[in-house]
Amino acid sequence: MRQERTTLSRRRFLATAAAATAYPLRSNAAIHEQNVLRVALVGCGSRGTGAAANALSTAGPVKLVAMADVFRDRLSASLQILKRRFESSVDVPPERQFLGFDAYRHAIDCVAPGGLVLLATPPVFRPLHLEYAVQQAVHVFMEKAFAVDPPGVRRVLAAGRIAAEKNLKIMGGLVWRQSVPRQEVIKRIHDGAIGQVTCLRSYRMQGPVRSPKRRPGESELAHQIRNFYSFSWLNGGYFVDWAIHHVDVACWAKGAWPVEAHGMGGRIVRDEPDQMWDHYSVEYTFADGTKLFVFARHMPGCWNQAGDYAHGTRGAARIMLNFARPASALFKDHRMRREDLVWTYEGPRPNPYQRELDVLVEAIRSDKPHNEAERCAYACLTVLMGRTAAWTGKLVRRDELLASDQRLAPDVDRMAWETPPPVQPDADGRYPIARPGI
Question: Which domain holds residue 363?
Fold first, then answer.
């Protein structure tokens, strides 16, 4: 099971590109005839390894046949973990273990057409990898976040449209969409249980996310990619990579995406050598004037909360209480007291991480429509709105941001180990951070 943690150990990159030994491809007809779904993993950190374990746990024969990363240690560790648990379903010999910035192409080619690729690299690479998977007629599971800037969002939208034309299936890693308690409470919100939604609140406040020091002998680019959550050009920033779950759930409950945002934030107690702010506060406005307030913070010794709430004209909803248990419920009063409880979810709570892959694989096998690219892109655009508003200190409008050509990593498509990273440390080892109004 994949779990959110305050410090995520994800895909790590090091090594040079490996020569690919061609793997015999099978047509869609052959795949369906044998009923074996061939899977490739691109990005072998904890998120990717977890997604692969979930894929290999779905119904029907599934086989992992290719893996890609740019760090040998990451790929080897992931392969070892998966082989221990799924020995008969893992067939990734050395010639299908691909390393380097073009490794994703070789891994995807091993399952094209009609196979499934799990995209779990740092978010900056997601649009590029998604485009290639769609080009090769491969179904996709892609972890959040899905882009780090507006041009990346536009690429995801475009790839999603082409995928729809090709009848490809795409699942995004906004895992709470597959949480049964959240599905049940949001269905009731949509059915009018709390009346018209007038306000929403979301919180992602937790302990600090630490930034490891650079390893001896490691290049600056390798250090940044290995610890990508510390660098905005790789993961979009704390608000984008962590708060996207909460923002997506709130917009799901509202049934709309905000049209503008303003916000603030900064670094108060953080002294890590990275680019992360340690707090954000963002106010979103929907087209009808309804507000969504999002608070994100990662500091030691503070009150922590990871919850989502909706208020309406006839009551309030607790969509999630905390990570340990959603405790989804409806109340007749906005204070959400025990005596005001009118409904609470008491049914089964299947693992939503597993359900993501169960739903996707079942759609592939049954040829059911399933394409979340547009929703994922707009969820990502919405957190980019909040981040941009906080970073600049300005009011940010959705349509203007979507049309923006601001890029955090302009050379990502051509990246090689010789490519200088978009940000460099100063003489004191400090990296540039956003300064509102400047």
Answer: 28-176+355-371
